[in-house]
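An instance follows:
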Amino acid sequence: VAGGDNVETPGKPGTDIKVDPKEPKLESEKTAKNLDSDKDKYEAGDTVVYTIKTRNTVTDSLVENLTISDKLPAGLTYVEGSLKAS
């Protein structure tokens, strides 16, 4: 703790720093894997896992409010609770 008669409260800093954010660029890749068979063709009852990987290829840029959506191919049904995001 400091004390005395010459104690002054510091003022606001007087320098503004301009920041020019970089524009992000996204790349995505989608893969599918049949958990019930090694075949490329899917059959009724097979469980198919789709993975979508998205990355920002621009260092020091920021991605905000990202939404990724995908439609299942005809004939497939979403398994409730199976979505994982990281």
